Amino acid sequence: MSRAKSAALLALLLLVCAVAFSAAAAVAAGSSKGKGKGGSARRGLPPCRDLATRGECAARAGCRWCRSEALEDMCFGATEAWRLPSQVFSCDPPSGAANARK
């Protein structure tokens, strides 16, 4: 009996892991599809990386202008900017950060 219970628990654990992996893969596939046509693109706005100037980037909510001495300066989404290496990029604070401190 103990062996049968162990096998059943193992099968149940594998099933739960498979479902969790499948759900995570579906979420990842949905977010990668949305990168080029994400929330701002659905509203008719170009994604942050398509903004060419610091002023355009600063005016867009959720975008941050990042400067680099080694690479070209670019506009990134807030999550992307947060992940950039600080040794290479220096990003402006979010546009609402100055107002939030007051």
Gist of the model:
By secondary structure, this protein is an alpha+beta fold. Helices cover 52% and strands 13% of the residues.
Roughly how many Å is the radius of gyration? 21 Å
Number of strands: 3
Q: What's the rounded overall pLDDT mean?
A: 73
The percentage of residues in β strands lies in: 5-15%
Structural class from helices and strands? Answer: alpha+beta
Terminal Cα span: 67 Å
The largest sheet, given as strand count, sense and whether it forms a barrel, is:
3 strands, antiparallel
Number of domains: 2
Helical segment count: 5
Low-pLDDT stretches are 27-39
Q: What is the percent of helical residues?
A: 40-55%
Oligomer: single chain
Structure description:
- This protein starts with a helix and ends with a helix.
- With 102 residues, it is α+β, with helices and mostly antiparallel strands.
- About 13% of the residues have low confidence.
- It has 2 domains: 32 residues; 50 residues.
- A hairpin with a 5-residue loop joins strand 1 and strand 2.
- Strands 2-1-3 form a 3-stranded antiparallel sheet.
